[in-house]
């Protein structure tokens, strides 16, 4: 990118302004959310993240000064939009606070990182550093594993988020298939029933997300992976819905 291609200082100050207010707001939010942590260790971890956000805020406002801008004026146009977003997504539990901090903020960071490619190198480095992942590596890694599990389709893409949402007609069809396979086996009806239910377990392991073997560790189910992460994070984590997108096809959502 040549100097002529780079945006004017006013546009860069606008970018820094929205990021600065985002960091200031994140500090306020994380400081408050830390109070919901189930133990002191996690409370301290969230508070440390808040402190990092304030450090980013200082660096961004310093850069605005360097470019001849006023940080207060640069942030002012974005206050209402940011505060409206936070009001509508206010977490009520520790788990919700984690999701908001690590997933919602991550999506915003991806967007601003792309925008930063069009500014001068010094500002770009500052923006990317300010947006660097300061969230829990454990939670981020869990989200990554689950999304890769859904996308992997090996041996089959998950279709359901839990056993309870598998339609009765689907289960009846599977049972009919298993019974037809063993109709000449000569086994008593009660034995056949047990075999059929056992085969349903294999069916669940193919199409129900928590029952699938992890694509990252074939010795663990997805449920076990989520359970281990829940223990580490100190909050129960449950996947309640997912959608799988494939090029050329519509979204495949859990039922």
Structural account:
- This protein is mainly alpha-helical and 255 residues long.
- It folds into 2 domains: 3-135, Ferritin, core subunit, four-helix bundle (Ferritin, Up-down Bundle); 151-253, GTP Cyclohydrolase I, Chain A, domain 1 (Orthogonal Bundle).
- It is 63% helix and 2% strand.
- Strands 1-2 form a two-stranded antiparallel sheet.
- Helix 2 (40-66) runs antiparallel to helix 6 (121-130).
- The radius of gyration is 25 Å and the shape is elongated.
Question: Could you give a short description of this structure?
Answer:
By secondary structure, the protein is mainly alpha-helical. It has 10 helices and 2 strands.
> The CATH topology of the largest domain is what?
Ferritin
H/E element order: HHHHHHHHHHEE
Total domain modules: 2
Number of helices: 10
Spatial gap, N to C terminus = 47 Å
CATH superfamily of the largest domain: Ferritin, core subunit, four-helix bundle
Main structural class: mainly alpha
Report the mean per-residue pLDDT as an integer.
80
The CATH level-2 architecture of the largest domain is identified as Up-down Bundle
Work out the helicity level. Answer: 55-70%
Largest sheet: 2 strands, antiparallel
Beta content comes to: under 5%
Number of strands: 2
From the spread of the alpha carbons, the general shape counts as elongated
Please give the order of strands in the largest beta sheet: 1-2
Radius of gyration: 25 Å
Contiguous runs where pLDDT drops below 50 for at least 5 residues: 1-6
């Amino acid at each position: 990118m040549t100097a002529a291609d780079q945006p004017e200082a006013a546009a860069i100050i606008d970018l820094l302004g929205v990021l600065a207010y985002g960091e200031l707001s994140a500090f306020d939010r994380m400081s408050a959310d830390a109070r919901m942590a189930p133990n002191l260790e996690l409370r301290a971890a969230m508070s440390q993240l808040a402190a990092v956000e304030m450090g980013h805020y200082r660096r961004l406002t310093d850069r605005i000064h360097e470019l001849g801008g006023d940080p207060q004026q640069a942030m002012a146009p974005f206050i209402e939009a940011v505060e409206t977003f936070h009001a509508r997504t206010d977490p009520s539990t520790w788990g919700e606070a984690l999701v908001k901090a690590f997933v919602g903020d991550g999506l915003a960071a991806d967007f601003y990182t792309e925008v930063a490619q069009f500014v001068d190198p010094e500002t770009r480095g500052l923006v990317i550093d300010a947006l660097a992942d300061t969230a829990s590596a454990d939670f981020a890694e869990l989200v990554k594993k689950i999304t890769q599990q859904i996308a992997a389709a090996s041996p089959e893409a998950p279709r359901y988020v839990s056993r309870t949402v598998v339609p009765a007609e689907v289960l009846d069809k599977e049972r009919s298939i298993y019974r037809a396979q063993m109709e000449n086996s000569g086994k008593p009806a009660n034995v056949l029933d047990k075999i059929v239910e056992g085969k349903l377990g294999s069916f669940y392991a193919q199409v129900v997300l928590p029952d699938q073997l992890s694509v990252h560790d074939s010795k663990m189910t997805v449920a076990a992976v989520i359970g281990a992460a829940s223990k580490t994070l100190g909050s129960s984590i449950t996947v309640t819905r997912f959608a799988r997108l494939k090029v050329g096809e519509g979204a495949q959502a859990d039922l």
